[in-house]
Amino acid sequence: MISIVVVYNNKRILNDILLKSLKKQTAKFELIALDNTKGKFKSAAEALNQGGKNANGKYIMFVHQDIELDSDLWLKEVEKFLAIS
User: Fold this and answer.
1) I need a surface site. Which of 31, 42, 71, 78 has the fewest CB within 10 A?
2) Which helix H or strand E contains 74, and what residues bound it?
3) SUPFAM superfamilies of this UniProt entry (predicted)?
4) What integer pLDDT is reported at residue 85 of this predicted model?
5) 14 - beta bridge partners?
6) Contacts of 59 (CB under 8 A, 6+ apart)
7) Burial tier of 28 (Cβ tally within 10 Å: 0-12, 13-18, 19+)
8) Is 25 in contact with 74 (CB distance < 8 Å)?
9) How far apart are CA 18 and CA 68, in angstroms?
10) The sheet that has 2-8: what strands, in order across it?
């Protein structure tokens, strides 16, 4: 399983782009979304590190809120590739 860690500062962009494309994925994944709309974290690195510490997947993928996965098999293919690497 892949843990996906995202820090966002715009919920609309998160919902319209990343979450919309994740709903189509066929692979099992864990989403760790960290809300930084109020500047809770001093930097993106701080927030991403916090998310990484909470991840339970075998692999961790750090993404931005505006990333769109171009295929519903994207996560499954990445997981296959990582497993043989």
Assistant:
1) 42
2) helix 74-84
3) Nucleotide-diphospho-sugar transferases (SSF53448)
4) 78
5) none
6) 1, 2, 3, 78, 79, 82
7) exposed
8) yes
9) 5
10) 29-35, 2-8, 59-64
Dist CA 40 CA 15 (whole Å) = 20
CA distance 27 to 76: 5
- Predicted local confidence at residue 14, as pLDDT: 97
pLDDT for res 28: 95
- Cα–Cα distance list, 39 to 4, 6, 33 (Å): 21, 15, 14
Cβ(76)–Cβ(24) below 8 Å: no
In the chain the domains, ranked by start, together with CATH numbers, are: 2-84 (3.90.550.10)
